[in-house]
Specification:
- There is one protein chain.
- Helix 1 (4-22) runs parallel beside helix 4 (76-85).
- The longest helix is centred in the first third of the chain and has 19 residues, at 4-22.
- The protein has helices at residues 4-22, 28-38, 58-64, 76-85, 122-132, 167-176; strands at residues 46-50, 68-73, 90-93, 105-110, 133-144, 151-155, 158-162, 180-188, 198-204.
- The model has no long low-confidence stretch (mean pLDDT 96).
- The protein has a 7-stranded mixed β-sheet, sandwiched between helices. A two-stranded antiparallel ribbon has the order 6-7.
- The chain has a single domain (4-204), classed as Rossmann fold (3-Layer(aba) Sandwich), CATH 3.40.50.150.
- The chain contains 6 helices and 9 strands.
- The protein has 206 residues and is an alpha/beta fold.
- It comes from Rubrivivax gelatinosus (strain NBRC 100245 / IL144).
Length: 206
């Protein structure tokens, strides 16, 4: 298997236009979670989006609330779309494994991004997010929904790397880093085959 970073970066660069056409809106569950993440934030508050992709639909929805996005992604092609869509925001080309957030941030999200990174790096990423959040801030993320080894799968004809702890381990890791889990739910359940499941988590810090 190719290096996960190289594989995913090349593949996301290759499918950027297809992703842009396909990922135009949030599901009702995603919209509800995002509303809870951003509830009560004042205009201009900083929101960190780790794995922001093209900026649609998550960062776009954050910006529409008058908040300032710092979007981080490893795909230059995806970031080019984000910059074109939301030019007044902060877009950074970086790997999440090495990115050092310059907080404080009023909220953060890592939506459908953490499970593209080898699980050995997840705890350190969570630790850096926690350190960059302001008191009372919230964090929204997705993790894999079952126990499984790392694997690859295809999207728009290109191969991608996936890895995740089972959800109970991810929840325990968040708590170990000082997060208080507010809500967690399956967005799709594992089917024993190709679909390994996907869990959404909303957490906060004191």
């Amino acid at each position: 298997m190719h290096d996960p970073h190289t594989l995913n970066c090349r593949s996301y660069d290759a499918i950027a236009a297809d992703w842009e056409d396909a990922r135009t809106r949030m599901s009702d569950a995603e919209a509800g979670l995002l509303a809870q993440l951003l509830d009560g934030l004042p205009p201009g508050a900083r929101v960190l989006d780790l794995g922001c992709g093209s900026g649609r639909p998550m960062a776009e929805a954050v910006a529409e609330r008058g908040l300032r996005v710092t979007g981080v992604d490893q795909s230059a092609s995806m970031l080019a779309l984000a910059r074109a869509r939301l030019p007044g925001h902060d877009w950074r080309l970086a790997r999440l494994e090495g990115f050092e957030p310059d907080g404080p941030y009023a909220a953060a999200l890592a939506w459908d991004s953490l499970f593209h990174i080898p699980r050995a790096a997840h705890a350190a990423i969570l630790r850096r997010v926690r350190a960059a959040l302001a008191p009372g801030a919230r964090f929204m993320l997705t993790v894999g929904g079952s126990a499984h080894p790392a694997f690859t799968d295809t999207m728009f004809g290109h191969e991608f790397f996936y890895d995740s702890h089972p959800p109970e381990t991810s929840l325990a890791m968040l708590e170990a880093e000082g997060f208080i889990v507010v809500r967690h739910e399956f967005l799709n359940r594992p089917n024993g085959g190709r679909d390994k499941g996907r869990v959404a988590i909303l957490a906060r810090v004191d």
